[in-house]
Design a protein that fits this description.
Blueprint (H helix, E strand, L loop, with lengths): L7 E2 L2 E2 H13 L7 E2 L2 E6 L2 E6 L2 E3 L2 E2 L7 E5 L14 H23 L4 E12 L1 H4 L10 E12 L3 H14 L1 H7 L12
Antiparallel strand pairs: 1-2, 3-6, 4-5, 5-8, 6-7, 9-10
Length: 189
């Protein structure tokens, strides 16, 4: 494959990916992104998040013409009305999406065709942490298990390597796996 030849692999434009990497190597500032979400409480466990604008590649992005809206809710056993998936379920969704996209990107850059890919996630939470009933119990997930079913044009060793790369380079996986500072403050005015 030459750098001037445009090919699509696993739904990604490999030439554009290589060009993006070269542009980032030439100007590290282009790699800095800021994503944003806005949330409004509705009632009980229901709240809604909207996502549209972000900063990336050296400028504010204007490609989105409408908000993406996500409804957060809770099941009745957690005092909700099933208005939508709850936030810890959305975290699993985000983690699955990011690990999948990272794996597809790296497979494409290595010339590996992915014929099928599906993922199952499970996460364990103890409500004693959320409710403050036991200070020794963390309020978040105690463990998350990701099981990926992969049918690819490569050896088992290459699949294992792709799994390791996906875990090591997925932004959401790294955010979950490593402590990340989170500033929580009251907005005034």
């Amino acid at each position: 494959m030459t750098m001037h030849q445009s090919i699509t692999m696993n739904g990604l434009d490999v030439k554009a990916a290589h060009e993006t990497i070269e542009a980032l190597k030439a100007d590290a500032g282009l790699a800095k992104f800021q994503f944003r979400a806005r949330n409004t409480w509705i009632d009980g466990g229901e709240n809604r998040s909207t996502i549209r604008d972000f900063y990336g590649a050296g400028q504010e992005d204007e490609s989105r013409t409408a908000d993406f809206e996500f409804v957060n809710g809770e099941p009745p056993v957690l005092l909700g009305k099933n208005e939508g998936a709850n936030p810890v379920e959305f975290l699993l969704h985000g983690l699955a999406g990011c690990v999948t996209t990272t794996l597809i990107l790296h497979a494409s850059m290595r010339g590996i065709v992915i014929r099928a890919l599906s993922t199952e996630l499970e996460g364990d939470i103890d409500l004693y942490g959320l409710l403050g009933l036991d200070p020794s119990v963390a309020p978040g997930y105690q463990e998350i298990r990701i099981r990926m079913h992969i049918d690819a044009d490569c050896s088992d060793e290459e699949v294992e390597e792709l799994l390791a790369v996906a875990k090591a380079h997925s932004p959401v996986c790294n955010t979950v796996c490593q402590p990340v500072p989170v500033a929580l403050e009251r907005a005034r005015g």
